[in-house]
Amino acid sequence: MNRRLRARVLAVAGYLPARTVTNDELAERVDTSDAWIRERTGIRERRIAAPGELTSDLAAEAGRRALERAGRHPSDVDLVLVATSTPDNTFPATATAVQRKLGIGQGAAFDLQAVCAGFVYALATADSLIRSGLARCALVIGAETFSRILDWRDRSTCVLFGDGAGALLLAAEEQTGTILDRGVLAARLLADGRHYEELYVDGGPSSTGTVGHLRMNGREVFRHAVGALAGSAREVLEAVGLSPVDLDLFVPHQANLRIIDAVAKRLGLDERQVMVTVDRHANTSAASIPLALDQAVADGRLEPGMLVLLSAIGGGFAWGSVLLRW
Questions:
Q1: Residue 24 and residue 164 in one domain
Q2: Which one from 23, 116, 195, 213 is the annotated catalytic residue?
Q3: What pTM did the predictor assign?
């Protein structure tokens, strides 16, 4: 039997800002209603970071909780990878701020930007670094303060997003090399820059010298998202000889309940196989999948040994899937 080095999940944890903003509160700011938002998105509330609360603060707290749950010390970590589109500063990497706040004094630390697909991209990257021997213990975090880049006058976008962070702690472990192994089993990452202007922020250091606001062609995003997510999900399962029927839990990016339902239908999944948190968190971009994983553990829906599929799509468009055994 061929032994293989795997990136095994030791723990997951999430962190949400204290302030909850309901649909009714948003209806006092823009021309919308709770019924309008729920019908089109499934969202009923979201969390918003407090003034002065940075993306690195959210990320560090999620990372701290993951370390505590795994019974590991910051000195065990030799890679901090933060997926975010809302960094504290243009540079240095938010991951270095997290490294400092957690007292992780060695190893690599960098950010990865693939918008809402960021966590899937980051997890696949960490897996590759672990399998290559460049890292042994990785803290992979998705963290966002999207409230800072929203146009709060635009009801088509400001109702969709929220703030939060989630973290996975991974460690290298030699296993049997079969699909029964624990940890990351396969990944598939894709992008198509022809859709660059369908979901973007209209500012940046090199273009306007400003932060800018999020802009989105919702109809086009929806149309592409369903096919892309279902396609990458099937591809990553087929890579290891499995199909959707083998899944214990599907954890998609939490952008819109209609998208989640449409993808699940294409894959032939029933609602018991699909994790949904968009109603409570809204779209937290790169943080949505780890936050959903944390909630799945808390709800008792995710237990050791289960086969889990993570799929996400974000601006660019960039998308992908990661298959792992919990």
A1: yes
A2: 116
A3: 0.98
